[in-house]
Design goal:
- It is a single chain.
- With 339 residues, this protein is of the alpha/beta class.
- Helices cover 42% and strands 14% of the residues.
- The protein has helices spanning 2-12, 26-33, 37-51, 95-108, 124-138, 153-161, 175-181, 187-199, 216-227, 257-270, 287-295, 315-325, 334-337; strands at residues 56-66, 112-117, 143-147, 166-168, 203-205, 208-210, 235-240, 275-278, 300-302, 328-329.
- Strands 1, 2, 3, 4, 5, 6, 7, 8, 9 and 10 form a ten-stranded parallel beta sheet that branches.
- The longest helix has 15 residues, at 37-51.
- The termini are far apart.
- The structure holds S-adenosylmethionine (SAM), 6-(5-methyl-2-OXO-imidazolidin-4-yl)-hexanoic acid and iron/sulfur cluster.
- 6-(5-methyl-2-OXO-imidazolidin-4-yl)-hexanoic acid (DTB) is lined by residues 62, 78, 114, 116, 147, 168, 170, 207, 237, 239, 242, 279-280, 307-310.
C-alpha cells in the first residue's frame, strides 16, 4: 500500500512543476502522515525548495486591538465571554496605540502587522475605525492583516478599498470536530466569510489549531479542507493550542511534538505555494523542534513578545535562533537580524 502510494505520489507531485492540486483524498493524506519521518520531511523540503527560498522566513507581528468578552464560545480561546480566564473586556484601542506598536514591530524586523479583534462579527462603525488603522499601518510601509470575525460583503469591500493585504479567518479543525469546539457558529459560516474575502481580492490567511484533543483524521481533514478550497490560502497558520487556565481545554493532553512537525510537513506538501506559518505555541517548543518545523517547510512566524493575549518568544531570542540556523527575515536588512 505504501509503495503503491509512493509511486502514485511521485507521479502526481513531480518535483519540478507547480504540483498544485485541489482534490486531495483522505487515504492519500493519511498515507503521507504515515510515511517514515525522514521520508516525509525529505518530500516536504523538496516541495518547499521548488517554490521558496528555503532559508528565508516571513515575519508578522500581532496586536490585539479589541480584547476579551467575545460572544463566541470557542473552547480554546481565552477571550470568550463563556470562560473565566481573568481577561477583562477592553474597547477598541486608539489609532495612535496601533501605529506606535506597528512602528516598534517594523523596527524589530516585522514586514506584516496583524490586528486581531475578539468579535463574532464587527459593526459597520467598527470597520471604519479599523480602516483608519489599516491606513496608518500601511503608511509605515508595512503589509496589513486583520482578523475580525465574520464579515458582510459590504464590509469586505470596504476593507479591500482601504488597501488591506490579508484577512485571517481560521477553519481551526475538521468540520466534524468543529462542533465539539464551538457551538455558536458553523463551519459553513467560516467558509462563507472566506469566500467573501477571496472574492473581494483580499489575500486569505487561513489555518487551524492542533493539540485540542482532535484525532489524526481530524488533522488530516483540516489540511484537506484548506488544500481543496478553490484557491489555497496564501498564508496557512498552524497553531499549537496554548492551554489557558479557565478555558475548557486548559488540561488537554499535549500533542506529540513530532506529530506537530508532521502536520507542518503535510501542510507544505498539500499547499506548495502557501506561506506555512509556525504560529501560536512556540514558547513551549524547543529551538530544535522549531528547526524541524522550518525543515518541514514552515516559512513564516509570529514575531514579538505577545500573540494576542498570551506570550510569544521575545524578538531577540528569535533573531538569535535565525542566526544559528542561517535563516534570513524576508524583506528585512541583515543589519536588523544582527542587531
Ligand atoms: N475573533 C476572530 C476569529 O475568531 O476569527 C479573530 C480573533 S481569534 C483569537 C483568531 C485565532 O486565534 C483563532 O481562529 C484561533 O485559531 C487562534 N487562537 C485563539 N486562541 C488560541 C489558543 N489558545 N491557542 C492557539 N490558537 C488560538
Ligand atoms: C492565528 O492563526 N493565530 C494568531 C492569529 N492567527 C490571530 C492568534 C493566536 C492567539 C493565541 C492565543 C492568544 O494569544 O490569545
Ligand atoms: Fe471570539 Fe475569535 Fe476567541 Fe472565538 S477565537 S472566542 S471568535 S476571539
Amino acid at each position: 500500500m505504501l509503495a503503491e502510494f509512493q509511486a502514485n505520489f511521485a507521479e502526481k507531485t513531480p518535483s519540478s512543476n507547480d504540483g498544485i492540486r485541489h482534490d486531495w483524498r483522505l487515504d492519500e493524506v493519511r498515507a503521507l502522515f504515515a510515511l517514515p519521518f525522514n521520508d516525509l520531511l525529505f518530500r516536504a523540503q523538496t516541495v518547499h525548495r521548488d517554490h521558496f527560498d528555503a532559508n528565508e522566513v516571513q515575519v508578522s507581528s500581532l496586536l490585539s486591538i479589541k480584547t476579551g468578552a467575545c460572544s463566541e464560545d470557542c473552547a480554546y480561546c481565552p477571550q470568550s465571554a463563556h470562560h473565566s480566564t481573568g481577561l477583562g473586556s477592553e474597547a477598541l484601542i486608539a489609532l495612535e496605540e496601533v501605529v506606535k506598536a506597528a512602528r516598534k514591530a517594523k523596527e524589530q524586523g516585522a514586514s506584516r502587522f496583524c490586528m486581531g479583534a475578539a468579535w463574532r462579527s464587527p459593526k459597520d462603525s467598527d470597520i471604519e475605525r479599523v480602516v483608519a488603522m489599516i491606513e496608518g499601518v500601511r503608511g509605515l510601509g508595512m503589509e496589513t492583516c486583520v482578523t475580525l470575525g465574520m464579515l458582510t460583503d459590504q464590509q469586505t469591500a470596504r476593507l479591500k478599498q482601504a488597501g488591506l493585504d490579508y484577512y485571517n479567518h481560521n477553519l481551526d479543525t475538521s468540520e466534524e470536530y468543529y462542533a465539539e469546539i464551538i457551538s455558536t457558529r458553523t463551519y459553513q459560516d467560516r467558509l462563507d466569510t472566506l469566500k467573501r474575502v477571496r472574492e473581494a481580492g483580499i489575500n486569505v490567511c487561513c489555518g487551524g489549531i492542533v493539540g485540542m484533543g482532535e484525532s489524526d483524521d481530524d488533522r488530516a481533514k483540516l489540511l484537506i479542507e484548506l488544500a481543496n478550497l478553490p484557491q489555497h490560502p496564501d498564508s496557512v497558520p498552524i497553531n499549537m493550542l496554548v492551554q489557558v487556565e479557565g478555558t475548557p481545554l486548559a488540561n488537554q493532553e499535549k500533542l506529540d511534538p513530532l506529530v506537530f512537525v508532521r502536520t507542518i510537513a503535510v501542510a507544505r506538501i498539500l499547499m506548495p505555494k502557501s506561506r506555512v506559518r509556525l504560529s501560536a505555541g512556540r514558547t513551549d517548543m524547543s529551538d530544535e523542534m522549531q528547526a524541524l518545523c522550518f525543515l518541514a517547510g514552515a516559512n513564516s512566524i509570529f514575531y514579538g513578545e505577545k500573540l494576542l493575549t498570551t506570550d510569544n518568544p521575545v524578538a531577540d531570542n528569535d533573531r538569535h535562533l535565525f542566526r544559528r540556523l542561517g535563516l534570513r527575515m524576508a524583506g528585512v536588512s541583515a543589519e536588523i537580524l544582527n542587531s
